[in-house]
Write a structure and sequence with these properties.
The protein is of the alpha/beta class and 234 residues long. The chain has 8 helices and 9 strands. The strands form 2 sheets. It has a 7-stranded mixed sheet, sandwiched between helices. The chain has a two-stranded antiparallel ribbon with strand order 2-3.
């Protein structure tokens, strides 16, 4: 079985003084999160699409889905956790409570504020997660990457040809992801930035999926203007 997990836990602090989290801001007449969910909803491979958001926004999210997508039993909204990975574990707990999964069952995790994810990217995430157990969507780094250990002086300039910028989806075999996460020490959990790093820390392979430059994350006010332009061009 294949499940989608759309992560909508952010509060949008870098978006500036806005009255709601950025995933609920409108672009082209619809909330960003709805644009994202539509990409998953039309894919018939998903058994269930789980939206995870702050508890106080659950009812609002459910109402938006009813308004823009309609009544359906394919999407469910639940509360997220205090961190990204705890949020994913909440999704897995929901799956385990309602479904009988096997070792090949997959979860496709995606940022709610990446509304331009393509059908190809989602399909390749499903394929490579099934084949390799874990995959991460990336694009080659186009700028030189500079590393500084003290945030003042350059420590290293890595070979750009080996550098990539991470996007989402990130997709995993569910039982493997849960097992590895539960095997982490508290210290290891504090250095996590995303779920793929769980596999890397434990020495497990994570396959690369080719992303798209347009699969951008809406973080700043400028990104909203770019998103409006991209949608109008389509």
């Amino acid at each position: 079985m294949i499940f989608g997990a759309v992560l909508a836990g952010g509060i949008g602090s870098r978006m500036g003084n806005v009255e709601k989290p950025k995933q609920y801001l409108n672009i082209a007449g619809k909330p960003i999160i709805i644009h994202t969910l539509e990409k998953f909803y039309v894919n018939d491979k998903f058994e269930k699409i789980i939206v995870l958001c702050p508890n106080q926004w659950v009812n609002h999210t459910e109402n938006l889905i009813k308004k823009y997508i309609g009544e359906n039993d394919k999407i469910v909204v639940i509360s997220g956790g205090s961190t990204r990975n705890e949020t994913i574990m909440n999704a897995i707990a929901y799956i385990e409570e309602h479904y009988t999964i096997d070792d090949d069952s997959v979860i496709v995790t995606h940022d709610s504020v990446r509304p331009f994810v393509t059908h190809r990217i989602i399909e390749e995430n499903i394929k490579y997660a099934q084949e390799y157990g874990a995959c991460d969507t990336v694009v080659p780094a186009t700028d030189t990457i500079v590393k500084s250990m003290d945030n003042e002086i350059i420590s290293e300039i890595p070979d750009r040809s080996k550098m990539y910028q991470g996007q989402t989806p990130q997709s995993f075999k569910i039982k493997k992801l849960k097992s590895l996460y539960e095997g982490l020490s508290e210290e290891e959990k504090t250095i996590l930035t995303d779920a793929a790093k769980i596999f890397v820390i434990k020495g497990e392979k994570v396959h690369l999926v080719e992303g798209e430059v347009s699969n951008t994350k809406i973080t700043y006010p400028y990104d909203l203007r770019v998103a409006e332009t991209l949608i109008s061009e389509k």
